């Protein structure tokens, strides 16, 4: 599974724009069913972020934590969600792109391409 990649794209639907500078931490569920932190990343100006590159992305269950509280605080916007966890089963040998559609009082996600 050397060639596959893991990425995200964060869009702020309350303003109709990409959410830049959102910190995302990536964890994997280990063999004793505990989360092991792998790395932190940050969305670019277009709201996109490469989470794991080819060669560092074995099959498993991954948790993405989107630290959106600081994103909204920088814009003087209150939010119900200081952080959003999305847990994804990445067991197939393919790329995974997990977008997050975000607003201060709700969010949704889906399997992208």
From TrEMBL:
EC identifiers of the protein: 3.5.2.17
Domain Transthyretin/hydroxyisourate hydrolase: 7-112
Entry's transmembrane regions: none
Enzyme class: hydrolase
Assembly information from the UniProt record: Homotetramer.
PANTHER family tied to this protein: 5-HYDROXYISOURATE HYDROLASE (PTHR10395:SF7), URICASE AND TRANSTHYRETIN-RELATED (PTHR10395)
Name used for this protein in its record: 5-hydroxyisourate hydrolase
